[in-house]
Amino acid sequence: MAAAELLRQGQIVAIPTETVYGLAANALDGAAVRKIFEAKGRPSHNPLIVHVASVDAARQLTAEWPPEADLLASAFWPGPLTIILPRRAGIIPDVVTAGGATVALRCPQHPVALDLLKLCSFPLAAPSANRSNAVSPTTAEHVARSLGGRVPLIIDGGPCAAGIESTVLDLSGEAPRILRPGSITGGQLSEVLGREVLTMRRTEEAQGEVPERPAPLISPGLLTTHYAPDTPLVLLPGADLRRMIQQDSREHDSAPPVGLIIYSEELRSQAGSLRDKRIVEMPAAPAEYAQRLYAELHRLDSCGLRIIYCETPPQEPAWAGVNDRLRRAAQNG
Ligand code: TXA
Ligand code: MG
Fold first, then answer.
1. Of 29, 57, 160, 255, which has the most beta carbons under 10 Å away?
2. Cα 168 to middle of ligand 1, angstroms
3. What is the arithmetic mean of pLDDT over 97-108?
4. Is the pLDDT of residue 213 over 60?
5. Which of 20, 52, 82 to mutate to test the pocket of ligand 1 (most atoms within 8 A of CB)?
6. Residue of 289, 251, 284 whose CA lies nearest to 267
7. 219 lines ligand 1 (CB under 6 A)
8. Are 48 and 94 in contact (CB under 8 A)?
């Protein structure tokens, strides 16, 4: 595979995974990994996820591999779960972990990513393949639009099945803690572990917004400006949405149109009567919603809209990943 050869030579390659497309480099080659940061415009204090082909490969990179990591890996790997553990000294260069004492590990499920990892004899550091702070790519075309010209090769593996980034679980502390919700839920994790799994509290996340203090961040990627489209996005409960749209079209008669993301049966049945034409009807189940979310944000973002109104999804655990990404998308709103 040409991709494996480029990676061996210290180049970067955009690859499909089941969550979002990743921008990969040899995780053991500091100079190669720095090319990822350059291409993305990513701040150097934000560590990368290291992708591995197997539990054995993951174990090599950690100082300790606790029994709980085995439980999680057998339940969810290959798959959209990233596990953070103490890092083994002297293997992964500092640029990957932003100098931190831990390393984030994931074995991806996409056949192209897995084949590539097996072909390479080294792990792959890979963040999402987009310019820093933009919406993540779920197709090769999204990658080309965001990073085209900055990456020698983009492998097209079709649209991503999960559609939002992996669940990030910190196993390096006393209690397991979710740093980033994803399609694998806290409930699923605590069922496998047989104990409570903590989630980030909004107050802790809010501290991440203070730009002068990158060092104490638990997970720098939790900066809330992440994942935002350029078009302002406003989240509103379904009940308020219709009223808001009608008021909006009265106040801005000849202004650029607004976009609308809805999912509930109630609003879908009214969609025809709404004045707005850029209506995205999303599936009412969280996995299908997540799968389409970024593609719809990319599409709406290129429509020259004034604003995107989005119906707030159910505030239920199964929707945690979707709600997290929508809250971040709404930071510009
Ligand atoms: O699904 C995914 O996870 C995708 C695909 C490509 O695998 N990757 C991805 O990478 O979303 P990225 O870099 O966009 O997000 C990684 C997140 C960031 O929020 C980063 O701060 C956090 O994981 N992270 C990485 N290493 C960490 C560590 N040692 N401790 C805490 N957080 C870490
Ligand atoms: Mg990202």
1. 160
2. 7
3. 97
4. no
5. 82
6. 284
7. yes
8. no
